[in-house]
Amino acid sequence: MLRYLVLRLAGVIPQLLLISLLAFVIMKSAPGDPVASLVGGREFMTQADYERVARNLGLNEPVVVQYGRWLGNVLQGEWGHSIQDGRKVSTVIAGALANTALLIGVAGVGIVLVSLIAGHLAGTRAQRPVDYIVSAAALVSFATPAFWLGLLLILLFAVVFDWLPSSGLVTLGSPDTLVTRLQHLILPVATIILAHAGPYVRLVRGSVRDVLASDYYRAAVARGLPRRILMWRYELPNALTPFITWCGVSLPLLVGGAFIVEWVFSWPGIGLLFLKAAIAKNYTMLMAAVLVTGAFVIIGNLIADLLVAWLNPKLRRQYGHR
Questions:
Q1: What distance in Å separates the CA atoms of residue 93 and residue 271, rounded to the nearest whole number?
Q2: Model confidence over 53-76: pLDDT tens digits?
Q3: How many CB atoms within 10 Å of residue 159?
Q4: Residue whose C-alpha is closest to residue 118's, from 104, 99, 138
Q5: Which of 44, 96, 157, 208 is paired with 11 by a 20 to 30 Å CA distance?
Q6: How far apart are CA 304 and CA 314, in angstroms?
Q7: Are both 181 and 295 inside the same structural domain?
Q8: Residue 271: which domain range?
Q9: DSSP secondary structure string, 180-210?
Q10: Which ranges in 213-235 belong to alpha helices (H)?
Q11: Structure confidence by residue, pLDDT tens digits, 105-122
């Protein structure tokens, strides 16, 4: 396992460098002017003021020089300051990342629980009403856009019934307590779970069906093993391997869906920060958001691969001995 971890970690740095380079080139190629966006347009600045601001921000130098300076500062732990308001990028990113990690973490746990429970029920009761209901719900989940579902939940639970807040992390004028934060978390988390759990449920169902049809499972049943042993030692462990693999592969989709949910619910995370930075052409904030998001996805894939290697004896033997 240690050798496997070292091999995977060796590929993280090149991936992050490639992500940062592509993001920098794309942002520099996109239309818009970060200097002019500071005052609402180029027509509100004289040429002298424009050149002075561009020189102070380091935007008048070649793209290669700008990228090299940015990369050197990042390697030293200096993320720079926001072009828009002068705040330290590292401080802003840390707060937004904590909110995004909370949202994705709670939603991820919910997706895992819903997928395992519903998928296992459908897989062990194939061609029965439970299987039909779960499969239909998974299909609806797969076909429902996250932004539409989020707006629908806001309309029902925040406007019609007025049970839950519609946006933000806290309510203006109300005390910032754990209860209020949980109330603001319910609708975004529910949106992510309902919009993304469908494929995972179908995957667990299919994996459970494959396990039930395997020879080793039938041999275990013939030996008279208790139902509890069959489920925890045969069904779930063997069904978890493709499930965890798919979780790692589909993590970018989950993160992208979480970003959309942040925009819909004005959740102050990386996704909302990314949108505001892109509108304002705030390059320093935008680069930090892209790099942190890339690192988040890569680390998630790494964790998923380590779990698969831990569950798969072949991988443990392959990387445990030369």
A1: 11
A2: 788 777 778 888 888 888 888 888
A3: 9
A4: 138
A5: 96
A6: 16
A7: yes
A8: 94-320
A9: HHHHHHHHHHHHHHHHHHHHHHHHHHHHHHH
A10: 215-222, 227-229
A11: 999 899 999 998 998 888
